[in-house]
Design a protein that fits this description.
Shape: elongated
Number of strands: 11
Helix content: 10-25%
Radius of gyration: 21 Å
Structural class: alpha+beta
Length: 219
């Protein structure tokens, strides 16, 4: 199988294309589409937050009680007088001042999204201390297989990130992924890469492809 990002395709298409029209044309004229996955649904809830306070849990040797700032964007979240939300976190890398990713109560953990065991978060006490949702690791976010600590937005990256921004906006996850049957493309090696695939899609959509100059001038 080959996975194609629609956002990547659209970078090279001359006009914006409706997802239903796009998949119909690709399926009927180029290659069989096995599935279409909407990342927008999967990543509707994760929010970038700042850990403004982080202290040891009074009844744990590894957990911390954190106050997080989401910029007030999550409606209905229980807050203290400063407008911050309390989350208990057991990750070893959690610390005051970091930018992390928060999954509010009622969120479905992205790692489990679409499975038979979807995990929906809530507000609950952890060893006697109330925790609202969770700070998530890359694996829990379904991004990569790192579970030793929570995801941290680096200092260099943080320049362009505001507290309360959606993770989907930050990582361009408002996207569709097309799973295609690449066996039917064995006779079209020019479509094995995103740019070549986009060039063919543009043709079947009756558009001109916006292809980088360097691609057309390879030695």
């Amino acid at each position: 199988m080959m996975i194609i990002s629609v956002n990547w395709l659209r970078k090279y298409l001359g006009q914006k294309v409706d997802i239903d029209q796009l998949t119909e044309r690709i399926g009927s004229r180029l290659v069989e589409i096995e599935s279409v996955a909407s990342l927008a649904d999967k990543y509707r809830s994760p929010v970038i937050v700042k850990v403004v306070d982080c202290v040891p849990h009074p009844d744990s040797d590894h957990m911390h009680v954190c106050q997080i700032d989401d910029g007030g964007v999550v409606v209905g979240a229980e807050r203290n007088d400063d407008g911050y939300v309390q989350v208990v976190c057991g990750a070893p890398n959690v610390h005051t001042g970091m930018l992390a990713v928060w999954l509010p109560p009622c969120s479905i953990v992205p790692e489990s999204y679409g499975t038979d065991d979807e995990f929906k978060l809530s507000s609950r006490k952890l060893r006697g201390v109330m925790s609202h949702g969770m700070l998530a690791s890359p694996r829990e976010l379904g991004l990569w297989n790192e579970h030793e600590g929570i995801m941290e937005i680096g200092v260099a990256d943080a320049i362009d990130v505001r507290v309360g921004a959606k993770l989907s906006d930050y990582l361009d996850l408002d996207d569709y992924l097309l799973e295609v049957e690449n066996k039917s493309l064995t006779h079209r090696p020019d479509c094995f890469g995103v740019i070549g695939f986009a060039r063919e899609v543009a043709a079947i959509m009756g558009q001109s492809a916006d292809i980088p100059d360097w691609f057309n001038n390879l030695d």
